[in-house]
Amino acid sequence: MFWDRFDGVRDNLMVTPLEKARRDPNSMKARILDSARKLFGENGYSGTTTRMIAKAVGIDISTLYYHWGEKADLYDAVLMATQEGLKQQLKNIEKVIHGKPLPERLEIAINMSCDYLSQNPEITNLILLNYFTNSQNGDIPNFNFIDIISDIAISMGLAMDKDKITKQAKARVMAVMLSLFNFIAGKKFLSPIIGAGSEEYLSVVKETLNFILIPAFIQGKNETL
Questions:
Q1: CA nearest 80: which of 115, 133, 130, 43?
Q2: How confident is the model at residue 224 (pLDDT cuts 50, 70, 90)?
Q3: Exposed (0-12), middle (13-18) or buried (19+): which is 3, by Cβ within 10 Å?
Q4: Is the pLDDT of residue 34 over 50?
C-alpha cells in the first residue's frame, strides 16, 4: 500500500506542467497557459510580462510563478503546445486527403489550414513574432519548424523520406506556410485593401492560395523528388 502511494507521488512529480494543463483544461495551469498564448501572440515575448498574464487570469504573480516558474518556461510551454496543436491538425488533414490526387490534396489541405488558423489567430502571430525576434535575443526559446515542414513535404508528395527532403521542397513548404501565416496575421490590414468583409476575406484567401499554389506544386513536384 505504501509503495503504491509512493509510486503515485513519484509519477505525479515526473509529469510536466504542460502535461498537467493538458489533462485538466479547467485547471489553473491551463487557464494561465491559455492567457499566456493569447498575450504572447499579441505582444511577442519581450512585449509580454508575467504581470500582464497574471492580471488577465485574475491571479497574483506569485500564483503564476508557482504554477509555471519563470516567463521563459511559460513561453517555452506555449510554443510546445502550439507546435503539438499544429502537428495534430496536420494528422487530421492527412486522414482526409490520404489517397486523393495531388490537386485535391492541396486544395483540402489549404482550406482546412486556413480554417484552423483563422479560428486560432494567435498561433500565426506567435510563430511570426518568434521567428523575427528570436535572432535578436538568444534567450528566447525557438519554435521548431523542421518536423512540421518534413511532415507536410511528405504529405504533399514532395519527398518520400524525412532524411531525403531537398532544399527546394523545404522552401516550397515554407512558402505555403508563410503565405498562410501572413494572410491570417495580416487580416486586419489586408482586408480593407482587398475590399473584403470579415467572412468574405477567408474565402478570398483560400481561392487565391489555391489559384497560386496548386499549379506551382504540381509543376514542381517532379523536380523535388
A1: 130
A2: very low
A3: exposed
A4: yes
Domain ranges of the chain: 2-224
CB proximity list for 23: less than 8 A, separation 6 or greater:
15
Residue type, 129: L
Residue closest to 76 by CA, chosen among 130, 12, 150: 130
Q: At 160, give phi and psi (nearest 5°).
A: -105, -15
CATH superfamily of 2-224: Tetracycline Repressor, domain 2 (1.10.357.10)
For the beta carbon of residue 217, count every other beta carbon within 10 angstroms. 21
> For residue 72, which amino acid is it?
A
d(CA 76, CA 67): 14
pLDDT at 13: 53
